[in-house]
Amino acid sequence: MKAIFITFDQAHLEMIHGILDHNNCRGFTYWENVQGRGSVTGEPHYGSHAWPSMNSAIIAMVEDRQVDNLLDLLHKLDEQSPALGLRAFVWNVEQTI
């Protein structure tokens, strides 16, 4: 089992929901308003007067076999609008209850 943590500009929300639905990833946790700044070229997303855009985040627990396809689809979405920003990170899930 893997955890995919996705941070993204809020404009991507519906497309990310679609990617998760299309790949039968039912369970996830969603944070609507998260602040951040890209590590290389990303502009700040602070929800302030100077930097008004905001990010959101989703963490989804998926089967190992689903990871590559999900990352590929998320990468393609990011390439469509690189200025918005989207990152995905994968962690091993050691145990669940």
UniProtKB/TrEMBL annotation:
This is Nitrogen regulatory protein P-II. Signal peptide: none annotated. NCBIfam families: PG0541_fam. It comes from Coprobacter tertius. It comes from the Bacteria.
